[in-house]
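2.7 Reproducibility. Because tokenized structures are sensitive to small changes in the input, we list the exact sequence used for ATP/GTP-binding protein, including any N-terminal residues retained from the expression construct. No trimming or masking was applied before prediction.
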Amino acid sequence: MARSNRPSRSSTPAARSGRVNKWTRPEATGDDAWLEKARHGVQRLQDAPDGQWHVRRISAGGASKTYKCPGCGRFISPGTEHLVAWRADHWSGDEASAAARRHWHPKCWESRSYRY
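Resulting structure tokens (single pass, no recycling of outputs):
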């Protein structure tokens, strides 16, 4: 008997087979930390002469906005790999520190000056 490409008419897709595909996959309700890391990069802590910094690499696929690099003053266009940095030891707390985060070109971040 030939196979039909027409879907079967059972009430639930999972009842038809035990396989899970993109149509019968259960909704993501659990811990999706791995998905956030894939979207926004892995955060790491960096020690520098001017304090501790949280640094996260943003992939080209995750870069969807235009930002201005504080190191060189040029714009980071959408689709360009870059990194985000914010202070880990901010005096106002983590919320204020995250609000003050900046997007940098990787070379600008590596060659930034610590002089004040």
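Strands lie at 43-48, 51-58, 67-68, 75-76, 82-87, 102-104.
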